[in-house]
Amino acid sequence: MNIIGTPRRRVDGRAKVTGQTKFADDVMLPRMVHCKLLRASVPHARIVRIDASRAAAHPGVHLVLTGEDFPIPYGILPVSQDEHALARGIVRFVGDPVAAVIARDEQTAADALDLVVVEYEALRTFAGPADSLAHPTPRIHEYGDTGNIHKLVSLQFGDVEQALAGADRVFEDAFFYQGNTHLPIEQHAAVAARDPDGKLVLWSSTQTPHYVHRALAKTLAMPAAHIRVIATPNGGGFGGKSDPFNHEMVVAKAALVLDRPVKICLTREEVFYCHRGRHPVLMQFTTGVKNDGTITGMHVKTLLDGGAYGSYGVASTFYTGALQTVTYHIPAYKFQGCRVFTNKPPCGPKRGHGTPQSRFGQEIQLDKIAEALAQDPAELRLRIVEQPETLTANYLRVGTIGLSQCIRRVTRAADWSNTFRKLPHGRGVGLACSSYLSGAGLAIYWNDMPHSGVQLKIDRSGGVTAFCGATEIGQGSDDVLVACVAEVLGIDPLDIRPVTGDTDLTPVDLGSYSSRVTLMMGNAAIQAAERARDLLADAVSRKIGVPKDRLVFADRRVFDTEDGSKGVTFSEAVCLAEAAFGTIGTVGAYTPPKSAAKFKGGGVGPSPTYSYSAAIVEVDVDPDTGWTHVPRVWIAHDIGRSINPVLVRGQVEGSVYMALGEALMEEQIFRRLPPRLSGALVHKFPSMLEYKSPTTLDMPEVFTDLIENPDPRGPFGAKEVGQGPLLPVMPAIANAVYDAVGVRIDEVPITPEKILKALDAKAAGKAPRYGPAGFPEIPWPEPLRVAPPWAGGDGTADDKGLRAEGKGLNAESRTPKATSVPS
Amino acid sequence: MMRLPNFRFVAPTSVHEAAELLTSSSGDAMLVAGGTDLLPNMKRRQQTPGTLVGLRHIAELRAISNGDGLTIGAGLTLADLVRTQKVRESYGALWQAAAQVATPQLRNMGTLGGNLCLDTRCNYYDQNYEWRKAIDFCMKKDGGTCWVAPSSTKCLAVSSTDTAPALLALGASITLVSANGSRRIALSDLYRNDGIHYLTRQPNEILTAVHLPESTGWRSAYWKLRRRGAFDFPVLSAAAAAKIAGDGTVESARIVLGAVSSRPIEVAPAASLLVGHALTDEAIARAADAAAQPSRPMDNTDFTLVWRKRMTRVFVTYALRELRGDDVRDLRRRVSRQELL
Amino acid sequence: MVQITLTVNAEPVDAAFAPYKTLLEVLREDLNLCGTKHGCELGECGACAVLLDGQPVLSCLVLGVDCGGRTVTTVEGLASDGRLHPLQETFADLGAAQCGYCTPGFLVTAKALLDEHPRPTRDQIRDALSGNLCRCTGYQQIYEAVEAAIGQAGPKGPALRDTRTDASSVRRPGPFGPGTDQSR
Q: Looking at domain C86-167, which of 2.40.128.120, 1.10.150.120, 1.10.10.10, 3.30.230.10 is its CATH number?
C-alpha cells in the first residue's frame, strides 16, 4: 500500500491549476455556430401556433428548430419518457424549451429568439402539491399513477400497526424540506459536430455520458454506434448534470442538419430551469419506541413536489423512504410516498438524492424522542445502531458499519458531554447521523451487464493507459482510477494516463451518480490491473526464475520479495510480457451483487455497501432576532478506506458546505403573481446573487475525522464519501438550534424569521416550534406487504401477484395503475 | 453566456468633455464608471443606452482633498476609499459601508459615485429580459404594474446603496456638473422616494465629488443586514452619527435607514431624542423605537418584510451601541461575518 | 470591430473584437485564453476574476473596448520560466481545486493578496477570497493552500520547486483538523 491512503496531488491537479482543463464551453471548433433556446414564458399552456419564419430569415441565422423536429421523447428513467427536446403541443413550466435558433454568434441567436412568435392557450397552473392533489385535470402529463399524481408508493415490512401499539411511546411529527438546487459554478454547455466520417460527436458537461448516448440514439433515431458522447470534465455537478438535457438533443440535431459544429452554453437563469434538484418534501414520521429508546416500528409518509417532468422522480420517491432502516434497527417499517407534477422546473437527484429530506425528519425526531425519554441523544443512537452485515426490514444488505465510531469520535472532539444542554442560552450543539449508498445496486435501465468496465493498455515504454467511462466531475474519479491501477502494478500514478468519459474510447461506466464510481470503477480497475499483473508476473517469473507468488510490484519494479536485487524494471517486465503473450491489454468489470429485495420497488436502496457519518454542529442563535451563526462543525465519516485522503477530506468538507447552504439559506422557490391579475408562476430569483450560496465569510470551521475500517466489498476497502457527509448536517443544525434557544424548526431552510416566529410562539405559550401542521390525505394504494427477514420473509411480497424482480424503474410498459384506496 | 447589447463607447478625459458628450447625445447616453451596476443591467436589458460615456480616464474624479472636512472624487473606487486612512479614522460609517459593498473584486471596480447612483433594486426588476417577459414586465421597465403592490401608482424598487445612508448620517453634500455649470446640493436632495425617478440628478449631470464636513467630535457607524457576508446588497441598513461631548452627552445626531424604501431615510425625530442625553440603554431604546417607525420594507428583496421591519429597531440599536463605544466585535463577527475594525 | 493593444500575461497583444464584448469574452473567444471561466456573467460568482493592472476584477463586467493599454494577468500567466506559481503548486497538492472551475478566479485573487500582504492571516485570506464562490471544497483546503504558499511567493517570482508532488508537503487529514497525526 504505497499509494492507497497516502495524501497525494490528484492526477489532474496540474491541469486544473493552470487553466488547462478543457470544460465543455472551452471547446472551440472551426466553423462553429451558436445556439440559443426560446423558453416558455407561461407556466402551463397549449401551444396554439409557432411562427419562426421571421427568426429564420434574420441575418446570421442558420437554422430554427421547434418541437416538430423532435417527435421522439426521452427521459432518464424508462418509466418516465416524458421529455421532448423542444415542446410539442404543451409547455409545462416557465423555462420549458420551445424553439432553438442557431446563428453565427450568440448575440444574433438571442436577437432572433425575440422574432419567434408563439401563441399560447393558458391551462390551469399547478403551483404546488395542494393544487395537484386537488385537481386531477387537466393532467400535466398523460401518464402517471392518477390525475396529476406521478407516483404513489406504498410498502410495508412487518406489522407496523402492531409494532406501534406495542411501543411505550409513539411520536408523530411532520417536517418540510424546501427544494434547492445544485448551483454548479459551471453552467451546462455542449458542443455537437459531425466527425470527418459523418458520425455525430457531442461534447457535454454531463455526469452520465452513457445515458446521454442512449437518449441521443433514441431521440435522433440513429445507430448508437454512430454517436460519440464525450463527457468533458464537469465544473461541478452534484447531480444536476445527470439527466439527458434538451440542449444536448438540440445541438446534436442542429449539427447533423447544418453539418457544422454547434455550441450552446446556458445562462445561469437557464441552469435554474434545468434544475433536477432537491425535491421539496413534506413528510410525516410516526415512530414507536420503548422507554429505552429502542424503535419498535416506524411509518414514514412523504409528499414530493416533482415539478413538470419525471426525471429521476420515481427513484427519488422511493429514496425518501429507503434508507431509514440502514442506520438504526427498525423491526417493522412502513413507507408511503407520493410525487406530484407541478408547473415548475423538474426536480431530480441532488447530492443525497431523496434521502436528505427524510434524514432531516428522522434525526430531528430522534432528538425529540431522546428529549422526551430524558436520554442523551448520542447514547440513544449508540444503543440502536443497526448491526453490520445484516439484512434490514426492507431487505437492504448493510456491510460494515462505522457509525458507532463516528458518534464516539465527534462527541469526544466536540466535548459533547460538557456542552450538550450545558451551554448558555443562545448557544447550542446538535448531533445527527446518516448513511448513504456506495453506488446504486441497479442501473437506470434493466440489464445484466457490468456497471463499470476498465480497460488497460500497457506499453513497453512503461506507461499505462487506463480507459473507463467514468466521469470526472471534480470528485477525483480520474485519480481514483489511476490510484487503483498504480497500486496493483507498483508504478507511480502519474505513469498512468486516464482516458475517461468517452463512449467511443472507453468501456461503459454508468456515470457519476449515486456515489458509485469509487466502488464500482475501483473494483473494475483492480481486476483489470490484477490481470495485467498476472501476465507480467508470468513473464518475469520465467525470465528471472523466481516463482510468481514471490514477485512484488513496487517502485516501478518487479522483484523477488526475498531478494530485492533479483528483478526487472516495470517497463522491462512489460517487454517480457509482450514478447511472451503479444500486445498487453486487459479488462476488468464490476457488477453489484444481486439484491435481496425481490419485491416491486425493491430496486431503489440496495447498494454493495453503505457509508456512515455523524456530525455535531455548534450554533449561536440571537434570541432577539433569530440570527444564527455557525462557528464550528465536527464530522466523522466511515469511509472504509481512503484512496486519496486529500480528496476524501475535500468531499467531506464540500458536503458540509453544501449542507450548510441548504440548512440555512438556499431555496429554489417560486412566485405566483396574484391570479386575478396574472397567470405567471416564475422562479423567484434565478440568479447567483439571490440564490444564496455561502461565501468564505459564512463558512464555519470544519473538523473532519475519517473512520478507516476497510469494507471487503470496496476497492482496497473504500466506501463512498461524495454524498453521505452532507446528510447529518441539516438535522444537526436544527437540533443545535433547539439546544440553543429551545425551539424546534422542523423545516429547512432554518432562517432567522422562522426561529423568531417559533420564539414568539414559545413566549405566547404555544408550541415552541415552526414547521408544517400535518400531512394531507393522499389516495394511497393498498401497501405491498413484505415480511421482514426475521419474520420468515424471503424478500418477496406476500401477494405474489404483485411480485416483480426489483424492476420498479424499468418496467416501461408494465407500470400498474394504482388502485385508489384511501388509507 | 449573457452578452451586452451593442453600444457606442466614448472615453472623455475631463469632466467638461464628459458633460458635453452627455448633452450632445440627446438622452441616449449613460455614464459608466466601475460598470458593476450598469453592465449587469444592460445584459439583462434593463437599460440599453446607445452611448456609454466611460469616466475611468478622468483623473479629477479620483482626487481626494483634505481641507475643511474631506472632499472625495466620485470616481474613486470603493477599494481605494477603504484604503484611505482619513476615511477610516474620521468617517467610520462610510468606511464600514464601503468595506461591506459586494465583494473585493467589485470594490476594486465600483466607484463611490456609482454606489450613490446605484439603480434601485427589486426582485421583479433585477431579472433577465425573458423572466420579466414572463410576468409581463413591471412598472419600472416595459410594463405598467408594480407587482410588489399592484395597486401602487408608484414603483417600489428599493434603494440599495450602502454608502448613501452612511454619507447622509455624516452630513455629506455633493457636486453635480453639467455642460451648463455645476451645483452643490445636500446629498439628501439627490434622492427621491420613487423607484423609477429615484435621483434628482438630471440626465446631463455628472456626480463629481462628495463633500464631508469636519468630523471633530463625531462618531459614526454603519450596520448592514444581508444574508451572507459578501456579495449581497443591503436589505436593511442603519447608519448613525453623533457628536458626543466629553461627558458623554449627545450634542448632535443623525440616524439614517437604508434599503427599506426607494430612498435612504433620515429619521430626524429619532435622532433628536438623543440630543442632550447620554447614550444610555434607555435613550438608545427610545431612539431605536422612533427610528423604526418610518421603515417600510416591501416583499421585493431577500428576507421577509415583517422580519426586516422588526430588525430595523435592532440594527439602529447596534449602531448606537457602537457609537457609545461598546465592544461590538463579537456582534460584528456574528451579524456582519467580519469585525470591521 | 474594435482594435486595441494591451498586455496580457506580460506579452503585448493586439486584439480585434466585436465592440460589445467584455474582457472575459475577448480573453476566451478572441485571444484563445480559455483558462478564465464564467459562472453568471453578472458579477455574482467570481469565477471570471483576472488581474487588471494588478488588481483582481471581474472580467465579465469590464468592457473590452476600455482595456487598451492595460495589463491583464490570467491563470495562464501565473507560471513563469516553466515553473508553476507556488499557489498553483499548493492548490494542486492540497485539494484546493476539486472540479477546478472556480480555481482560476481563486488563484489570481490569492496572488493579488500575497502580492499585497505577503503573510496574510486566515481572516485576511477569508476576506480577500469572499468574492469567489466555490461549490466543491467548503473553502478550507483553499485557505490551507494559500497559507502553504506563504513565503514562497517572493517578489522575485515563484521559488524553485519540483513540479512533481512532494509528499512531505501534503498534510494528512487527521482526526479533526489538518496537520495532525492520523494514527490513533
A: 1.10.150.120
